[in-house]
Amino acid sequence: MTRTWIILFFCLVFWSGFAVLQLDRQAFYKTLSSGDEASIDKAIAGLEKQKLTSRVSAYKGALMMKKAGFIKGAKGKVKTFKEGAALLENEIKGSPDNMEYRFLRLTVQENAPKILKYNKQLDEDKQAIVSNFDKLESDLKAVISDYAKHSKVLQATDLK
Hints:
Elements: H1 2-34, H2 37-49, H3 54-67, H4 74-94, H5 99-111, H6 122-132, H7 138-148
Helix pairs in contact: 2-3, 3-4, 3-5, 4-5, 5-6
């Protein structure tokens, strides 16, 4: 009887942790796509309070690049964008097989102003995502599929 309760307890802890991970990812992508500066600032501040992990760094980098669009003055925009890009690129360099990071870069590359010349890995990231799509977690697949509905680079038909 006690053994059953112990197993049940560990299963409950494992699944509740998994649910929190999914909710964090969903909240992040909702903020990233929102275009609301206050939400982006709040999300960045929240990430800065968390333990530094690869995922936290990649998320912060993507949010900083998005935030750059709200900053007044070209110098400040470029500085913030480059800081965010450095965070994301460092995580991709350390984990080139992480498709979520590659997806983040693809979304930024597709939407960044051409003058920044941050679009050199667009096709490479698209191919990596398409090739590995079936292996991704279901919540990440949903985010990517949603993005593909309005993307000019990554089409929903590419993901089949």
